[in-house]
């Protein structure tokens, strides 16, 4: 593990038992194969937690693994965790660790989060591209070496996140977010086959339909990025976040479509 603390706050859950964070063992995450989800907690409530649990189930299934815990049992433990940590807002990670085909343990705990500042929402953030192919993008599997590489690159380049570009020069996604481009008031985003099916992405597509915003899912070449008018990313932590720069290419942080979707997504969260 990196020097960054993985498990924060007071307590975490290991195999259904509340434990103090001081005894958290990162080997339960890094050894073997770890399927995970990160769910945001606001006001003691989990955002879209059923969507996250369904994606969690999907990753386990397409990985050829099994889990006997029901959504009801997982939800019960999630709320036990929040209560044990005094209903603190933040991000909670749900992990099932497998050794071979066998479930070794499951854990729930608060993790450090990176939420954008008001300035970053207003002025946008920087992404830096890397050539990287995420195998099986529909599987949310913990890859420690990938996370450490992303941390090194973003720190060196003073960037919010990396933008993954495959061997064909196609834009895929950020390391922890999906990406959208705007050209002539049409929204473009890479096809689902190339990206993790993001929960925020799903609701942005629904909001686009409700707001009569045209959207096209299609391959986007990195070399064509300068043809777009604006860019934003979506995810559990950033919500809807404007992008002001990708490598040497600059974009305006404010665009009518981006501003509309930020407003509508925040209204959606307020009404959950």
Cα separation of the termini: 35 Å
- Average the pLDDT over all residues and give the rounded result: 95
Main sheet: strands, sense, barrel: 9 strands, mixed
**Assembly context of the chains:** single chain
Give the full name of the CATH homologous superfamily of the largest domain.
D-amino Acid Aminotransferase, subunit A, domain 2
**From the helix content, strand content and strand pairing, which structural class follows?**
alpha+beta
Give the overall silhouette: globular
Uncertain stretches? none
Q: Which series of helices and strands comes N to C?
A: EEHEEHHEEHEHEEEEHEEEEH
CATH topology of the largest domain: D-amino Acid Aminotransferase, Chain A, domain 2
Gyration radius from CA atoms, angstroms: 19 Å
Give me a quick take on this structure.
With 272 residues, this protein is α+β, with helices and mostly antiparallel strands. The chain has seven helices and 15 strands.
Verbal overview:
The protein contains 7 helices and 15 strands. By secondary structure, the chain is an alpha+beta fold. It has 2 domains: 8-111, Aminotransferase class 4, branched-chain amino acid transferase, N-terminal domain (D-amino Acid Aminotransferase, Chain A, domain 1, 2-Layer Sandwich); 118-270, Alpha-Beta Barrel (D-amino Acid Aminotransferase, Chain A, domain 2), CATH 3.20.10.10. Strands 7, 8, 9, 10, 11, 12, 13, 14 and 15 form a 9-stranded mixed β-sheet that branches. Strand 5 and strand 6 (102-111) form a beta hairpin. The longest helix is centred in the C-terminal third of the chain and has 15 residues, at 256-270. The model has no long low-confidence stretch (mean pLDDT 95).
């Amino acid at each position: 593990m990196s020097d960054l603390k993985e498990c924060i706050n007071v307590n975490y859950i290991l195999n259904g038992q509340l434990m103090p964070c001081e005894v958290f063992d990162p080997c339960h995450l890094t050894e073997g194969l770890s399927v995970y989800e990160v769910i945001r907690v606001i006001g003691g409530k989990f955002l879209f937690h059923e969507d996250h649990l369904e994606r969690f189930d999907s990753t386990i299934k397409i990985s050829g693994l099994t889990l006997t815990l029901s959504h009801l049992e997982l939800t019960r433990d999630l709320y036990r965790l929040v209560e044990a940590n005094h209903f603190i807002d933040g991000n909670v990670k749900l992990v099932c660790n497998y050794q071979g085909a066998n479930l070794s343990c499951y854990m729930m705990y608060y993790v450090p989060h990176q939420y954008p500042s008001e300035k970053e929402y207003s002025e946008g953030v920087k992404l830096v591209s890397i050539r990287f192919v995420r195998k099986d993008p529909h599987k949310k599997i913990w890859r420690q070496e990938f996370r450490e590489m992303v941390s090194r690159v973003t720190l060196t380049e003073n960037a919010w996140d990396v933008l993954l570009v495959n061997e064909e020069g196609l834009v895929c996604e950020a390391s922890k977010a999906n990406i959208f481009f705007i050209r002539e008031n049409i929204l473009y985003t890479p096809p689902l086959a190339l990206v993790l099916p993001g929960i925020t992405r799903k609701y942005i597509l629904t909001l686009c339909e409700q707001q009569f915003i045209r959207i096209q899912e299609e391959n986007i070449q990195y070399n064509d990025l300068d043809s777009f008018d604006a860019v934003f990313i979506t995810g559990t932590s950033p919500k809807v976040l404007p992008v002001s720069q990708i490598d040497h290419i600059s974009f305006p942080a404010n665009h009518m479509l981006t501003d509309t979707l930020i407003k509508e997504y925040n209204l959606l969260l307020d009404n959950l």
